[in-house]
Amino acid sequence: MNAMGRQGQRSGAPTAHHQRQYSDQLFDASSNGRWLQSAGLQHLQSSNANNLPPLQGSRMYWNAAPRGFNGGSGSEYFTDPSTPKNLQTRNGEEAESPSRFSPGLLDLHSFDTELLSEMSVPALYDAPSLYRSVPGRSLDDSDTYLANNKQIGRARGVPDNNLLKSFVADKEKASNVAKIKVVVRKRPLNKKELAKNEEDIITIEPRFSSLTVHETKLKVDLTEYMEKHEFVFDAVLNEEVSNDEVYRETVEPIVPIIFQRTKATCFAYGQTGSGKTYTMKPLPLKASRDILRLMQHTYRNQGFHLFFSFFEIYGGKLFDLLNDRKKLCMREDGKQQVCIVGLQEYKVSDVETIQEFIEKGNATRSTGTTGANEESSRSHAILQLAIKRSADGSESKPPKLVGKLSFIDLAGSERGADTTDNDKQTRIEGAEINKSLLALKECIRALDNDQGHIPFRGSKLTEVLRDSFVGDSRTVMISCISPNSGSCEHTLNTLRYADRVKSLSKGNNSKKDTLSSSTLNLKGSTALPLSSILQHGTTFEDDIGDSWPEQADREDYDIPEEFQEPEKPLWKKNGKVDFYSMSTSDDKVKRANVQTKSKDPPKFETKPSQGDDDLNALLKEEEDLVNAHRKQVEETMDIVKEEMNLLVEADQPGNQLDDYITRLNTILSQKAAGILQLQNRLAQFQRRLKEHNVLVSSSGC
Ligand SMILES: Nc1ncnc2c1ncn2[C@@H]1O[C@H](COP(=O)(O)OP(=O)(O)OP(=O)(O)O)[C@@H](O)[C@H]1O
């Protein structure tokens, strides 16, 4: 049975729309080989489209159970799908016809973002609780303020001084909302895991937005030891955190700024069964509620409208979830802007209608069963809330797009290696999913790096999201992790992915060259010692008031010194030792202490053991340094291996993948060169230590 059959596609009567057949891009297997060769991985070349490695999987059967976004709990599903055309609002009125504003050929860009008269971001932003979880708080609490807000209804007029000031202040607040926010959510152990007595290997320190993965490893002699991996993110949410709190931490802060010509994207990433759908489900409805409130209060009578669309990307193809899974086409116009041909967009003005649409869409989504999740999303579902505005307040002309909030429930990042089922369809699904996850990561990196070229064409997902990534955009990534020991490797992969996405997000978006950005990405994957962050003075108190605190500057403790400064002489004839500057803050503290000591006039050490002690301590430091770098290289190798797996499974080369491999190779060679340099230094040091010992013993001490 083909993919479509298995999805139970409906043959609902298509509405009359312009459609253009989209033919999937054919990928050149030879270029697949090229990038593998460039990475020195020719042996993986056989893993191309015609010869994929057997993907294992515990996916047993196809299951078209509805799932996806809705406003309810994880277990709520839509049970009574009706076609959107027949949708009625609660008060019996018919919902706006999709064709009223949707011309059938929906060009995501044809409605140019309107040049709005400058308008303040609602003072909702003033509430610190928007950034920190306060139980029971909702936008309702702000209604009184909003109703009295003098800016209401004035924004279109000539701004007076205060309004202007307020606008500037609000604008600043809006720009304080980081371009990329990475939040991690841990789910509780499930029944299966509890029954198997699986351990919870994740500890969370919410105060420092940090978490530790406790990985059990085996030594060569087969004794067990524990390796700790520490990570720090913008926020880390433990298993007790409610969906309301997740909303407050992630989406609530960006809702007001989509009225400010911002396009925001919120997506969940993680292993299959880690809680992505559970997390994403309630967010769109909560956001719609807040958007409608803002429209009805702050922006009342200002011509704003909310539009709703919901579609999925399955196997690289687009399907309208609100129009009987009608196949959609994507095309680029002359300005390289993406249009989704035939996507139904509905004007909505009440929460009930939105909920019905969400449920309707969820009911239509493609799901399957994986080992970790009986109802696994095998597609990326994209729910978009678009804010549009009628230019002159009248509805004679189509309204223009002002801002957009996209919610993406990504398909599970189950790796080929985890699946035992190697049926072709499953492999194609897996390859497509991995390809898009990889492409998404690349786009986010490129964006945050302000790179001129954003590799949107890496996948359908990124092509579709193109307009959410250009211009003034915000991205919230929620990384979902499973706590059980059996998921340790996946959890580490998810956290490394998240860390690499985050590693470039310092809020300043300064230009960085490709190489250094890649270096940072890779560095970011190395677990950050909490101690070093604390030493940088970042405290919880410092973070309060700053919604999305910037990370401590990683360069301070992550860039190997040998790449920054020329080597200094190690040991001078007068017996005074010059110390290397070290790369970690810990080491810097040590060095500072040692240097303070060495300010005293050097005394001739009569006890050889003292000099030896100093030198031995130094030798130990050198050894530690070499080991640290070796570990870093090993970790980098792990990352490269993981990326390679993804690339192979994604099975789609593309130019950006070539570039990516080249960058990884460069970083690896740099790291290897660094290790070699350190080893030479160590050997040199050992020679000098020997000389020193000879000197000391010949002086008769
Ligand atoms: N934070 C949580 N609290 C309670 N239950 C949760 C939580 N997160 C997930 N679950 C439960 O775990 C199961 C799997 O979650 P979910 O379907 O959201 O995973 P997923 O990451 O979307 O998987 P897939 O990628 O396969 O679609 C569901 O039964 C869900 O209700």
From TrEMBL:
The keyword Coiled coil applies. Residues 619-650 form a coiled coil. It comes from Rhododendron simsii. Residues 597-606 have a biased composition (Basic and acidic residues). Pfam families: Kinesin (PF00225). Residues 80-90 have a biased composition (Polar residues). Residues 179-504 form the Kinesin motor domain. Keywords: ATP-binding, Coiled coil, Microtubule, Motor protein, Nucleotide-binding. The lineage of its organism: Eukaryota, Viridiplantae, Streptophyta, Embryophyta, Tracheophyta. This is Kinesin-like protein.
